[in-house]
Amino acid sequence: MTDLFTDAHAQALDAADPLRDYRNAFHLPLHDGAPMAYFVGNSLGLQPKGARTHVEEVLDKWATEAVEGHFTGNAQWMTYHELVRDGLARTVGAQPAEVVAMNTLSANLHFLLVSFYRPTQERPVLLMEAGAFPSDRYALESQVRFHGFDPAEALVEVEPDGEDGTFSMACIERAIAEHGPRLATIVWPGVQYRTGQAFDLQAITRLGHAAGAVVGFDLAHAVGNLPVQLHDSGADFAVWCHYKYMNSGPGAVAGAFVHARHAHTDRPRFAGWWGNDPTVRFRMGPQFSPTPGADGWQLSNPPILGLAPLRASLDLFDRATLPALRAKSEALTGYLQQLIDADLGEVLQVITPREPLQRGCQLSIRVIGGRERGRALFDYLAARGVLGDWREPDVIRISPAPFYNTFVDVLRFARTVQEWRNGR
Fold it and tell me: Can you tell me whether residue 6 is helix, strand or coil?
């Protein structure tokens, strides 16, 4: 325990970190003039220093070229969304034509469910996890109602079987088997937002398809965090945001995936002119001819200023590589778990699975003793520049992001908890 809690130990881990210099590529928020220990990349990632250059490029082009900016230069606006396509595909393990940056997360979920939730009297069920992020719950319930079904009958929320709100694969398999004959679509998280549990996308997809269902994922907490390998998973569709681990700014343009086997689908969709075949788009004809692949689900012109920061983020992902980031992430959360096990077990209980394959950057940590004690610790941490986020009634989420968090940051969290416990 003594070695774990020494400056020398944490500093040696940082000195051996091959990604240590990437911290300098981000703006770090300050507390009393020094960088915070910022553990909220699972909610809003820090700003890459390169983002300003890309945003200012768009602003300058707008100022000097106005509408002609759509057609000039390597960063012309007509094809701007294509500038992030290959990087996104590499980050989520997809073919380039399977991904698109567009809209926002909940909007993308609705638009893709138009195509991939097609309930019938025989198969009306939309299956999700109990305790999902509220926006997903709202979206899925409203989709069920929109199609004329009763959510009490057609929206199935699978209850976790783990004492800390986690799900075993056996639990998910039982639910799919139970509802299989009536199952239309499954929407499951890549990482559960409250517990931080990561799921096997390929296994869930295989089970869903065997039951005759369509399978999609909300990857808000997984993209940029885990190597999700979307194409190989066989998932029919997926949606995610870019403001968390993808570090692209508040309300950033979101992402969507549609598997290549649906590239020429005749499934219904809500159509918009930017999803129309670009070779005929400006003929302004009445007939919608969708672009093959994920691009065909676009509706409107891409928000160029919103896409610009994503370019800076993807540049960093390409340089650092997701396998290297994942390796550091496992080391950071492993160190955090060690510190808690060594001396903080009477204060904190990690409810995220211990197995690295079942978690990403985030450890969800229950404060033992109830809500009042938990809020007191959370406020104490924040007042000392150690920032996580709070989830009712008693959980603090701590997410060491491998791009910019350090082992010294993790040690700072543990020491600050020790100080609070010891009444200093």
Answer: coil
pLDDT digits (tens, 9 = 90+) for 100-156: 999 999 999 999 999 999 999 999 999 999 999 999 999 999 999 999 999 999 999
Single residue among 318, 335, 362 that ends a domain in this structure: 318
Q: Are residues 404 and 383 in the same domain?
A: yes
Which stretches of 137-267 are assigned E, i.e. beta strand?
155-158, 183-189, 214-218, 237-240, 255-258
Paired tokens of 170: 């056996």
Domain encompassing residue 25: 7-47+321-422
CATH number at residue 23: 3.90.1150.10
- Cβ atoms of 266 and 231 within 8 Å: the answer is no
Query: Do residues 386 and 307 both lie within one domain?
Result: no
**Total domains, the chain:** 2
CA distance 11 to 406: 9
Mark whether 280 and 235 lie in a shared domain. Answer: yes
> Helix or strand or coil: residue 398?
strand
Report strand pairing: 37-38 vs 99-101: unpaired
In a domain, 1, yes or no: no
For CA atoms 205, 207, 209, 211, the dihedral sign is: negative
Measured distance CA(233)–CA(136) in Å, rounded: 21
Strand, coil or helix: 202: helix
Q: Of 272, 291, 318, which residue is a domain's last?
A: 318
Question: Looking at 241-377, which runs of residues are DSSP E strands?
Answer: 255-258, 348-350, 363-367
Q: Read off the tokens for 242.
A: 């870019």
Distance CA 357, CA 353 (A): 9
Read off the pLDDT of residues 371-417 as tens digits, 9 standing for 90 and up. 999 999 999 999 999 999 999 999 999 999 999 999 999 999 999 99
Say which residues have a Cβ less than 8 Å from residue 413's Cβ, sequence separation at least 6: 37, 39, 336, 339, 381, 386, 388, 398
Same domain for 76 and 161, yes or no, is yes
Q: What is the pTM of this model?
A: 0.97
* DSSP 8-state secondary structure symbol assigned to residue 155: E
Q: For residues 371 and 344, what is the distance between their CA atoms, to the nearest angstrom?
A: 18
